[in-house]
Amino acid sequence: MPLQTIMRRHLREGLPMNPLESTRFGEACSPNSAPTPCATCGSRVAGICAALDMAGLEEISHETRRTAVHPRDVLYHEGDSAQSVVMLMRGVAKLTRQLPDGRQQVLGFRFAGDILGFTTRRSFASDAEMLTEGQVCRISRRDFEGMLARFPATQRRLIELCSQELAETQEQLVTVGRRQAEQRVAAFLITLAEAARRRGLRHDVLDMPMTRAEIGDLLGLALETVSRAFTQLKKRGFVKEPGGHKVELPDIPALAALAEGDLE
């Protein structure tokens, strides 16, 4: 089943995307019962820490270092030694790679709860840069692997998160390789809506800290093409832009159908 179809069904019916987004984790990790540093962390809702109970959160909190970050702050550079893992507590970041000709390629955007920099390689494969104000939680690679060993539920959660990212990467390949410009932008907006839904946020009004040039870079489109696609989506009533770097999606199922090619 195509990912956009899955997203549309989950958005319509309010179902969890992953089996591990279940009641048992919601009960084990209630924000009211968590250690203070973890109380507002996105990882407890959509990330690996959703698999930890209060005792586990307390233990892990002593092995991590929390840091406030600002727009344009670089979390790590491509080629740096991958000795730590970064969990995005809040905020939005982008992953980029420097091409041989000096251009920068946007690989994706990351949101609260996402894990950045976990790799089997000795060095990071991309740059990670903040787009917004936020907070990150750093843990050494050794301690992160120790957490996986001590808490088997985090291993299952990591598999779920990796599977989710793989599915999104495959969908991205379809988007860039087969979809027209308007469909690509629609698919991108659906992906953002699903990311917001998984975090318990409004998914019909989205924060859009990324520029249209960055969106175009991700989708393989020129800036002018992205702007025209947004204009067409607004004219057709799929998108509204109330200002303040926000986008409103009045009819998410219809937008998902457009992304899948079910609407002309």
UniProtKB/TrEMBL annotation:
Keyword rRNA processing in record: no
Name of a matching Pfam family: HTH_Crp_2
Gene3D superfamilies per record: Jelly Rolls (2.60.120.10), Winged helix-like DNA-binding domain superfamily/Winged helix DNA-binding domain (1.10.10.10)
Keyword GTP-binding part of the UniProt annotation: no
PROSITE patterns: CNMP_BINDING_3 (PS50042), HTH_CRP_1 (PS00042), HTH_CRP_2 (PS51063)
InterPro entries given in the database record: cNMP-bd_dom (IPR000595), cNMP-bd_dom_sf (IPR018490), Env_Response_Regulators (IPR050397), HTH_CRP (IPR012318), RmlC-like_jellyroll (IPR014710), Tscrpt_reg_HTH_Crp-type_CS (IPR018335), WH-like_DNA-bd_sf (IPR036388), WH_DNA-bd_sf (IPR036390)
Protein name: Cyclic nucleotide-binding domain-containing protein
PANTHER family membership: CRP FAMILY TRANSCRIPTIONAL REGULATORY PROTEIN, FUMARATE AND NITRATE REDUCTION REGULATORY PROTEIN
Domain Cyclic nucleotide-binding: 48-165
GO cellular component, one term: cytosol
The HTH crp-type domain, residue ranges: 179-253
Provenance organism: Rhodovarius crocodyli
GO molecular function: DNA binding; DNA-binding transcription factor activity
Keywords: DNA-binding, Transcription, Transcription regulation
